[in-house]
Design goal:
Shape: flat
Radius of gyration: 25 Å
Number of strands: 7
Structural class: alpha+beta
Strand order of the largest sheet: 1-2-3-4
Strand content: 5-15%
Number of helices: 7
């Protein structure tokens, strides 16, 4: 019997066999063209060609390798819904129907194999209880992240003061703007750093957040951790419906929890609640 692969292992393999060669192409080819130009082996305009060639080859590599990874991953991972969600979040694949998804290179055999694997999505994912979790989990603002961002804000103030001391009109303006941004950011980050209030509390009975009072699991539906946006603008949220028609959405990026950890937590406590009421 073939052993199933975990979602984490599949994602790690995806980064290795897809993103690693893509990164090598997109960085290595321009670097080689720059070296050859410095050695006078190719003209200066060859550097621009190197950047274009690096992008084209990198995209071609991704288009070919991502299909191979899709087939392997969806064939060997049990929880295909979670796998697909994680792969989109970690920029391995695109959302269904996205124009970039249509650039994937799929042979006739690949298309047939992927069509067969679609049947796996008819089954719900299966999860196991994480016995290492305590009876209650309290989630607060991350002290380490808060301290880091506070230090950055203070450094911005320092650069602002530095430019002001230069004594020119432009430096006054630049320094003043940086100073105001730094002061505003410092106050905001200091408030978070000093805030010890629980932002999310989850246990066997239900969920409570900073904005919503405790709700029992029996009143909660469709609890999940989602990511919205792309790149640096991407944000992660805990979301769920309660009392049938009210939607709760709490940003978690500043909290002392990762997206994967929170997903594991809400699944485990949901499982424990279901066991208690069987």
């Amino acid at each position: 019997m073939r052993q199933e692969i975990s979602v984490n292992k599949a994602i790690i393999r995806g980064h290795l066999i897809v993103n690693t060669p893509v990164f090598i192409c997109i960085i290595g080819i321009p670097a080689i063209s720059l070296y050859l130009s410095n050695q006078n082996l190719i003209p200066k305009w060859g550097i621009g060609i190197g950047f274009i060639l690096g992008f084209v080859i990198a995209w071609s590599v991704w288009s070919f390798m991502i299909t191979k990874w899709r087939i392997w991953a969806f064939k060997n991972v049990r929880n295909v819904h979670e796998l697909k969600k994680r792969a989109i979040q970690e920029k391995l694949i695109w959302n269904d129907g996205n124009i970039f998804e249509k650039t994937e290179i799929r042979t006739l055999e690949d298309k047939k194999e992927l069509k067969k694997l679609e049947k796996k999505f008819d089954k719900e994912d299966v999860y196991r209880e994480d016995y290492s979790l305590p009876p209650r989990t309290i989630i607060k603002y991350s002290k380490s992240l808060g301290l880091f961002e506070l230090i950055i804000s203070i450094l911005i103030i320092g650069f602002g003061i530095y430019f002001i001391t230069k004594g020119t009109n432009k430096s006054y303006i630049l320094g003043g703007i940086m100073g105001l941004i730094g002061i505003y950011s410092s106050i905001k980050e200091l408030r978070k750093f000093l805030n010890n209030k629980p932002q999310i509390i989850i246990d066997n009975k239900g969920i409570e957040t900073i904005t919503t009072e405790f709700k029992n699991w029996s009143n909660i539906e469709d609890e999940q951790v989602i990511q919205e946006g792309y790149g640096k603008s991407a944000k992660s949220y805990l979301t769920y419906w309660y009392d049938e028609e009210i939607f709760e959405k709490v940003e978690i990026d500043q909290l002392n929890i990762t997206q994967q950890q929170l997903e594991n937590i809400i699944r485990t406590y949901r499982i424990r609640n279901n066991k208690n009421y069987r």
